[in-house]
Amino acid sequence: MTTDLDLTDPAFVADPYPALAELRAAGELLWHSPSGRWLATTHGAVSAVLRHRAFGRIWVDHEPTGRMEPFNTLHRNQLMENEPPEHTRMRRLLAGAFGRGHVERMRPRIESLAAEMAGRLGPRADLLADFAEPLPVFVIADLLGFPREDHVSLREWSQAIVHMYEPSVDEATKQAAVEASTAFADYVRAVIDERRGRPGDDLVTDLIAARDEGEKLSDEELVATVVLLLNAGHEASVNTFGNGLVALLAHPDQEARVRSGAVDVPTALEELIRYDAPLQLFERTATGDAEIVGTPVRAGQKVACLMGSANRDEAVFERADAFDVARDPNPHVGFGLGRHFCLGAPLARLELGISLRVLLEHFGRIELVESPRRPTWVLRGYASLVCDLGERHD
User: Fold this and answer.
1) 286 annotated active-site
2) What average pLDDT does this structure show over 173-191?
């Protein structure tokens, strides 16, 4: 089966779920003629691809001999774009910092930060710009040992880089990504140089010192890893928060269940992650001939795993298009599967759970006033969430 669905169509970008349902009905693995790759549409097909050892993240440089080298270098040397043995070595060196016990020790700091930021919100606030965007940047900056006051630059560089992940990008987007990659890498190198002379109690110092059976991160891997941690450590969190909060506010009966304690925040959070996925597509490449849900895939062919579609698969989720904060079990693929399962998932869950709980505890009413979408689909989120905030419960 084939499809020529336009993944850049503004109507699809605005609300992809009806079209994704049609794709699932057409087949689990469809050939997408415009992009020359397979689309995995169901939970089963996406899970099979992400867990299959024959499918990997194979980085291909943009304009290999051209101006994109600063962008390419950051990706060529990062954990997410590598496979074993490089991926195994880098992941082991990073794993300790994101273990559940280490992350849990950050809870008091994050709770204090979230409460402080919520306390500064006015009666009308943009809950993205004033709360959800800076909070995870502050957390990652603290973890890495970056000054919090640099959060605006860090966020802007990250946004310029991740805009390259959309299905088609223009020249202005490419140029912005190159400039951001250059500035971000220079910033990280300066921090690394400073930490080599004056070690601190932070993750950059730990990564410089980390060894695994005599192996360590090269300088380029170290820079790329730090950039990835900041990009991945806040971009998905911001979009998950925005998408999830809008869904919650659009369903007052579900919001009431969380506010009353009838449904606990950790359970509700999983539905916020599932319902409107912040990462809609994750691509893998076949390193050898393989078969997915009965369809042969040849070596070198790419498969785009449609994560948002998998999370709405009626074969796995009863009433899949319904928003149900008590949904349990909830086997969404929001953090991926297999060897590339998100290393920062425990930290993301901690941040998001605390953020949601703090806002609901601080404000007796949150009324959405304005919520324009970003014109992107792969990374799906909102540009702003302007809300009227009701009576404080400080």
Assistant:
1) no
2) 94
CA distance 335 to 273: 9
Is 394 among the domain residues?
no
320 lies in a domain? Answer: yes
* 232 has catalytic annotation: yes
Strand order, beta sheet including 124-126? 124-126, 386-389, 366-370
Catalytic residue among 28, 81, 255, 351: 351
Residue 184 lies in a domain: yes
Is 83 annotated in the active site? no
Active-site pick, 286, 342, 348, 387: 342
Q: Which two tokens stand for residue 61?
A: 């440089």
Which entry of 181, 237, 309, 371 is annotated as an active-site residue? 237
pLDDT per position as a tens digit, 185-202? 999 999 999 999 999 888
Whether omega before 64 lies within 30 degrees of 0, making that bond cis, reads no
Q: What CATH number is associated with residue 217?
A: 1.10.630.10
User: What is the total count of domains within the chain?
Assistant: 1
Is 260 a catalytic site residue? Answer: no
pLDDT at 259: 97
Mark whether 221 is an active-site residue: no
